[in-house]
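Title: Prediction job returns without error message
Component: structure pipeline
Severity: low
Priority: P3
Assignee: unassigned

Description:
Job completed but the reporter wants confirmation the result is attached to the right record. Sequence as submitted:
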Amino acid sequence: MFARLTRVLALSLMASALAFSVAQTLVVARGTDALTLDVHRATDSPTATTISHIFETLMDLTQEGEIVPRLATDWNVSADGLTYTFTIRQGVTFHDGTPLTAEIVRGSLMRLWDVDNAFSYRFLINTVTEMEAVDEYTFVMRLEKPFAPLLYHLTHTFTSIMNPAAIEAAGEEVVSQPVGTGPFRFVAWDRNSRIDLIRNEDYWGERPAIEGLRFLVVPEGTTRLALIESGDAHVAIDVPPQDVARIDANPDVTVYTQPIVRTVYVYFNMLKEPFDDVRVRRAINHAVNKDEIIEFVLGGAARVSDSALPPGIFGYSPVGTYEYDPELARRLLADAGYPDGFSTTLFSPTARYAQDIQTAEAIQSMLAEVGIQAEIETTSDFSAYIAITNEGPETNRVTMGLLGWGVVTGDGDYGLYPLLHSSQWRPTGNNRAFYRNTVVDALLSEARVTTDVGLRTQLYADALQLIHDDAAWLFLHTYSVVYAVRDNVDGLVFHFTERLIADEVTVR
């Protein structure tokens, strides 16, 4: 019955793809939908991929980690590190014809910065104290203290420039009426099914060669592969390990592996027993065989996390791993008052991260070996999952939650401050574990304002060691995205920040 339903869904999606498609439309099949098309409300990678084709940031971050111009053609930082001056690109218009100006840049970033809006990614620019449009194309940010990663933060997709007038006109519908300056315009969004974009014929830069871009939402991996094998999708994200060899053997398809800067972990709600006890958190870390998950669940396309930051990120330091030792896990549980274990719930998304539900099932089995009975709870889609995890401390019912975090700015501040500083507790931040360590807070806060590279490196190393010792998460792995592309597609970029970029794609 399931197989028949899968075939029916595949045929339905194929027909839908053909209805929109012309020869020059790129069709991408992925596991989850965007959560919003409002830049400042966005919180996830599928959303970032979508809106980065519609909206643009002041600067971009290349695959080599270099900051390059986008909507800002030039920038200057004062000697004291407190004033940032940007020259805004002339001749840029929004999709509704509105010219880009410094005042629009100011209005967009002020919306993100405004504490009353309670946007989760406000931390990207929360050290800024003043923004000013000096003239039509000169924009200035001022700070009271230096903030070392500010330029990198301004390459983040969620700082993309929106038109305040378009936001006001759309009202609550702004989440589904995006008006940007990017190379593609929004056409339609059928939630949890597809998003359609069309080429922006008035784009200020080099126009895309393709005429359209469609993101299909296809949670089932076998269905994504059926679409790419038939040619009804050009790209399939997250090829299941067991299918890699077969799909790669297809003469019309190539499978690629792209290392990314995403750490996957299970966070503990430290306001709930027994996860307020570090011995329990350490026991769980020792109970889970991460190497086995990587080998048998992920097909080897990952590495065990030895830090809360992934390698290649400024501030990364390999502080160690919790070795698989179920006997030690049992002793720690007994010391904490749980000689027979306990029961809990493990929340997990489906089709968001590589083999996420299979990873949750492996964790469930390993925890059972030490007496912890973890019931897995999932949701119908990723937006519902995020909504559950986003609750504040009084109402949050998540005890253990599987999540991932991509350090897309390349800087340790982005990987640690929003997730582990106590000022970032949900519902306004991203610290869903409600973790608090005053020493870690002090280290992360100091690392934000010092421009001494050596000192910042040491501050992060000290913080990472404390986070490890606290067993702040069940540290799992950093992984590589495995994706398949039809061989008639050229110019596709899968960025290390986990964004698929189709700006220069051609379809033969």
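Comment from assignee: result matches the submitted record. The domain at 259-480 is CATH 3.10.105.10 (Dipeptide-binding Protein; domain 3).
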